[in-house]
Amino acid sequence: MNHVAIVGVGQTHHQRRRADVNVPGLVREAAQRALADANLTMDDIDSVVVASGPVLFAAVNQPEKWVVDAMGARGKPVVRITSGGGTGFAGALAGYYQVAGGFAGRVLVVAYDKLSEGALQYSISSLYDPFWGREFAVGIMGFSAAYWRARMDALGHTEEAAAQIVVKNLGNAHRNPFAHVRKNVTVDDVLKSAPLAWPIKLLDVPPISDGAAAVVLSTEALAAHSTTRPAIIRAIAYCAEADNAPQRSMLMSEPFAHAARTVYRAAGITNPRRQLDVVEVQEPYSCFELSYYESLGLCAPGGAAELIGSGATQMTGDIPVNPSGGCLGANPIGASGLIRLIEAAMQVTGKAGDHQIAGARLAAAQTGGGWANLRGLAVVSSD
What one-character-per-residue DSSP string does 258-283 give? Predict the structure, then answer.
């Protein structure tokens, strides 16, 4: 298999409503920025992967046919990928295997969501099995609240610990020029914000954003034509299980545990807290970042509240998590997983600007779709 490198990245400025462009225009922005970052044109691209959320998210069927002309990709092999919140990451995985398997030398992966024009909640509520799950389909927030509540007593994932995540990520978003939300909030502000589905409160919830992101993937041999410092994908995996298994334990996401074991083994990581320089996670609500600390091996089960409280995951800590601001800073759902990979790549190539972690050489990017049944992880490095 070919080694695969990220040689170009691009994303839009994410906003609650991008009324200035339609979906093809949004996708074109991100694609052009990624191509320019890679010092390439569309003529140099062998294949295109379009990743977007369920069609109801943007209310357009077969959107890959809609955006091809805007990107200048007419005549290229094009495939569309969708897998809920992890769609962007799944698109990157599809592009990775096209390059690794020798089908293409360079692949452009674009991911987007224009949620201001779709039917988000209706789409989520109709995702589930009509016999076994749909009557309980109260949306992702209801499941997430149950997930958090199950972990509070067992693992100490308190409201205060989750509030510290919000303070950290929104503070980091101030340094990210692409972020949608930049706020200075306190733990008390989060705890006193409007209750939605206890223990989830208004400030625990990411925004809904319009936005797009893109990466150019290349063989290692071709990478030198674009950059002297590519981000090498050391390992990547995306795992799934049935969404409503009756025997499910809410204390752990089995797909994430399996993905982490697979990726760490392939990347040679035995002590993630010490070996990783920076981590980007896709936190659909603040409480999920706590669980990811444990699943990623950054602390022992039950140690997440202590880890956030210690300051270790701040930008000045020994294992910074979400220096970009994460989903709390910007959340174009179909693109959010790809943005995590982009941010990890920017860190190890020294392109992260004001939220750059000095000396970062090895980074992890985590993603998730569904509520706990789809989870992925990638490790990228500067060598």
Answer: HHHHHHHHHHT-S-HHHH-SEEE---
- pLDDT confidence of residue 246: 64
Per-residue confidence band for 367, with pLDDT thresholds at 50, 70 and 90:
very high
In the 8-state DSSP scheme, what is residue 184? -
DSSP 3-state of 216: strand
CATH architecture of residue range(s) 138-207+231-381 = 3-Layer(aba) Sandwich (3.40)
Please list, in sequence order, all residues whose beta carbon lies within 8 angstroms of the beta carbon of residue 87, skipping any fewer than 6 positions away.
51, 52, 53, 81, 111, 333, 334, 335, 337, 369
What are the pLDDT digits (tens) for 127-148?
Answer: 666 766 665 555 678 878 988 9
Burial (CB < 10 A; 0-12, 13-18, 19+), residue 166, is buried
367, two tokens: 């993603």
Pick the CATH number of 4-121+209-223 from 3.30.559.10, 3.60.15.10, 3.40.47.10, 3.30.470.20: 3.40.47.10
d(CA 352, CA 371): 29
Per-residue pLDDT at 120 exceeds 70 = no
Please state the pTM of the whole predicted model: 0.95
pLDDT band at 119 (very low <50, low <70, confident <90, very high): low
**CA distance linking residue 25 with residue 198, whole number of Å:** 39
Check: CB of residue 277 under 8 Å from CB of residue 347. Answer: yes
- Nearest CA among 282, 276, 279, 301 for reference residue 291: 301
In order of 89, 168, 205, 225, 287, the CA distances from 186 in angstroms are: 31, 9, 15, 47, 16
Ranges in the chain annotated CATH 3.40.47.10: 4-121+209-223, 138-207+231-381
Question: For 45-100, how does the pLDDT look when each residue is reduced to its tens digit (9 = 90+)?
Answer: 999 999 987 776 666 778 888 899 999 999 999 999 988 789 999 999 999 999 99
Q: What would the DSSP string read from start to end of 11-63?
A: EPPPBS--TT--HHHHHHHHHHHHHHHTT--GGG--EEEEEES-HHHHT-SSH
pLDDT value at residue 83: 85
